[in-house]
Specification:
Layout lengths: L3 E5 L2 E5 L5 H7 L20 E5 L7 E4 L10 E4 L22 H8 L11 H5 L6 H9 L3 H7 L8 H5 L6 H15 L4 H12 L22
Parallel strand pairs: 1-5
Antiparallel strand pairs: 1-2, 3-4, 3-5
This protein binds iron/sulfur cluster (2 copies).
The site of one iron/sulfur cluster (SF4) has 16 residues, from helix 3 and helix 4.
């Protein structure tokens, strides 16, 4: 198949059909020094991009590792790394669910100012109902809010989109942490952590991958 021609961050690239934007960038010999974290696993949110397709008036968001190349695409990486967050908390200070509303109110008072513009929903490349999550969290329905945020990759595009500076990405992370801290942890995990703390966790030195520097027995 003939290669597709597109522009990424000002570089005109000829890419193989079926490759992702990130793969096309690397295949073109361009340096991969930023906007990448998990190397194509679609879990870190670092390779967020704005994409404008042929014939479309508006640009949409996406992740470069899971957006496939198209002829005539114009793509720009979005650098949204945040050095600091305005909200800080210690999970050990969280009480029980009785305090959930007060804690969201204390830490994220701006959540109640959501103006229902849906900017966060439009910006989210994972299709998360961000606005709904914010509004559930604001009224203390933290469990329901946390469930909506399972697929968040912390790309921060919703943060950039919010005119009320609500920081939905951080609020979603907070309600997930709060929910986990208020519910039972898996017993197997707790048992293993206790064993590690006590130094009694058996280590299988013959397990596959225990010696990553050595070649696999199956390798040629
Ligand atoms: S909810 Fe926000 S931070 Fe999470 S994936 Fe969507 S846009 Fe990115
Ligand atoms: S972008 Fe901000 S104000 Fe708009 S719906 Fe989302 S959380 Fe509410």
């Amino acid at each position: 198949m003939a290669p597709l021609r597109l522009v990424i961050d000002g570089h005109t690239i000829d890419a193989e059909p079926g490759t992702s934007l990130l793969q096309a960038w690397v295949a073109a010999g361009l340096p991969l020094t930023g906007n990448v974290g998990c190397m194509g696993q679609a879990v870190c949110g670092a390779c967020r991009v704005l994409v404008r397709r042929t014939g479309e008036r508006l640009a949409t968001t996406g992740l470069a590792c899971e957006t496939l190349v198209e002829d005539g695409m114009q793509v720009a990486f979005v650098n949204l790394s945040r050095g600091s967050r305005p909200h800080s908390y210690d999970l050990h200070d969280l009480g029980d669910s009785w305090d959930a509303i007060a804690q969201v109110d204390d830490l994220f008072p701006e959540a109640k100012r959501c103006r229902h513009c849906s900017g966060c929903d439009s910006a989210c490349p994972k299709g998360i109902q961000v606005e709904k999550m914010v509004n559930l969290a604001a009224v203390g329905q933290t469990y329901a809010a946390a469930e909506l945020f399972d697929d968040c990759v912390q790309c921060n595009l919703c943060v950039a989109a919010c005119p009320e500076h609500i920081d939905p990405a951080h609020l979603g992370q907070f309600v997930r942490r709060m929910t986990a801290s208020m519910t039972l942890r898996p017993s197997d995990l707790i048992m293993r952590l206790h064993e590690i703390e006590a130094g009694s966790q058996a280590i299988d030195l013959d397990a596959p991958g225990a010696h990553p520097s050595e070649p696999d027995a199956g390798e040629a």
